[in-house]
Design goal:
14 strands; about 375 residues; about 15% strand; alpha/beta; binds pyridoxal-5'-phosphate; 13 helices
Amino acid sequence: MSTATGAIGLSAPWLDERDEELVLEVLRSGRLSLGPMGPRFEELLAETIGASYAAAVSSGTAGLHLCMRLAGVETGDEVITSPYSFVASANCAIYEGATPVFADIDPRTLNLDPAAVEAAITPRTRAIVAVDIFGYPCELDELRAICERHGLALVEDACEALGARYKGRQLGSHDHPATFAFYPNKQITTGEGGAVTTGSAEEHELLVSLRNQGRLETASWLQHGRLGYNYRLDDVSAALGVAQLEKLERILAGRRDVASRYAELLAGFDLELPLADDAEHERSWFVYVVKLARGIDRDAVIHRLGADGIACAPYLPSIHLQSYMRDRFGFGEGLCPVSEDASERTMAIPFHARLAREDQERVAEALRSALQ
Ligand SMILES: Cc1ncc(COP(=O)(O)O)c(C=O)c1O
């Protein structure tokens, strides 16, 4: 997958003959939805993660929305979450009429700072949406203890973190609801798609009903026991998911190798590299995000690399500063200074499991000259 002089994209899914084979199997079966491939994907996913239950859904966003229903989030509630994330981890609360409350992040991990979370709790707080940003596990034990102390629901947004481990156990196997996403830049892809894992049979039953228009397992097709959604994952997508999970170990290993090559190539550059793992946190590599030194013109750097055919992106903006969030909730600068500082200086560089060494060398060279 070398492109000696061609364009180097930000991400790329790993698709091969096995993906084609299983997708074709579904097409030839004529069962494009609610066929056997959905449960096959869910079983394999639950087994891979070590989760009791996995419910496939049509996107990570859909999964997070359903988690808000599981948590009983209602109009007037507050949901504490990270400002340094993709917007869906905050939007899901708004879908249910709740207000997102942003607690600042830890500058090292870029995940929620548990002390900031605790300080943000009010009598209206109903849930915490904890994000594992860039595949780095958040402080699950501390956040869970806060939830227990204050009677709150814990929802994990593990959309970027399939395969990551916290204290030795894979994310998604810690019993509270955790959402994964399978957009093509993720560790595995189903095109669009996602899944929610949980350790609770009741929560799983509710997820399965909610994603399927509120149908009850016991009732017929046009009997609906509750307000639900069409958040089902179709069987073509599930087939891709099965093929992807079959090679998950190779995908994760490839991503680890690419990340460690970047760490070598970028050593000594005037920028901060992603945080290394420790005994409690094992990252699943999602994107490769570097933090530029203060005073460097990030847009100019991105532009310089773009001119060399190398795609980079400012990554991630702080959610509370998005225009619709400012307009609706009155958020502004200074609310979460650590997140805002990270947002001004972080950028993603090309990253995927089969990124060629020569391409990484080109990225490093271009970055070196842009930073001079
Ligand atoms: C942290 C986070 N949460 C939620 C989502 C939403 O997932 P999807 O795009 O599948 O709806 C994403 C995906 O980009 C994400 O990165």
